[in-house]
Each structure stands twice: as C-alpha cells, then as structure tokens.
Amino acid sequence: RYLVDRGCIFVGHGLSQDFLIINLFVPPSQIIDTLHIYHQDNRRYISLRFLANYLLGHDMQQDIHDSIEDANAAFKLYLKAMEAKKEGNFEKLLMGIYEFGDKTDWKIGIEERQ
User: Which SUPFAM superfamilies would you find in this protein's record (predicted)?
Assistant: First the structure.
C-alpha cells in the first residue's frame, strides 16, 4: 500500500490479476502493463514467455515460476516498446510478433513446435 500511496508506477505483465490476488487497488495511472502494450484489438493476448523469447531472445520459466524474472522481462519489454514507439516502428514490430505467433501456433523453441 505504501508504494501505491507514494505514487509509484508499477510495470509488469498481467498486473490486474496480480493486484486482484493480493487485494490491492492501484489507480490505472500508476500501471504500465505489457500485456496491454503488446496487444492488438480483437487478437489474442500474448504471454510474457512468448514476448520475452521473441523480442529478448530469452527462454524463461522453463521449470518454475520466478516473479523476479517476470518483473525483469516485463520491464525490458516496456523499454523495447518505448524505443520502438520513439522510432515510429512499434506497429510494425507488433504485426511481426502476431505473424510469427500465428505461424508457429504460439509455441516457443524447437521442442514445443514439434
């Protein structure tokens, strides 16, 4: 609650579910959610693992869930989105993600695609 009251900005992926679980209200103005940043209307939401693999070259959460790894990946994805928006190519980047996901049936790595 302290961080919310101090006006901290929370960056993550699928944060509304996290806040719901811990019964914490965070004003929308204090939330940056990569689940929504990397989403096209009327399309599926993209998993953090898929985005991290595609954009960061990082295969995460292979064995256990690691919230620190999630937070780091979400922050890096946020920075990547801001950089792409600044360069004017975010929509092209997002289209490429959806095209690749559709082509691979949203599977990550060779093992999952077999």
Answer: Ribonuclease H-like (SSF53098)
Instruction: Tell me the domain boundaries of the chain.
Output: 2-113
Q: Which residues 6+ apart lie within 8 Å of 46 measured at CB? A: 35, 38, 39, 97, 98, 101, 106
Domain 2-113 has CATH 3.90.1150.10: no
**Which H or E run includes 34?**
helix 34-37
Task: Give the pLDDT of residue 114.
Answer: 43
| pTM exceeding 0.85 | yes
Question: If the chain, 114 residues long, is cut into consecutive pieces of 10 residues, what is the mean pLDDT of each piece?
Answer: 96 94 96 98 96 91 81 97 98 98 87 50
d(CA 85, CA 79): 10
Residue recorded with tokens 């204090």: 30
C-alpha pair distances (Å), 30 with each of 75, 92, 109? 14, 27, 34
Residue 57: HSE in the Cβ half-sphere, 13 Å Cα cutoff: 0
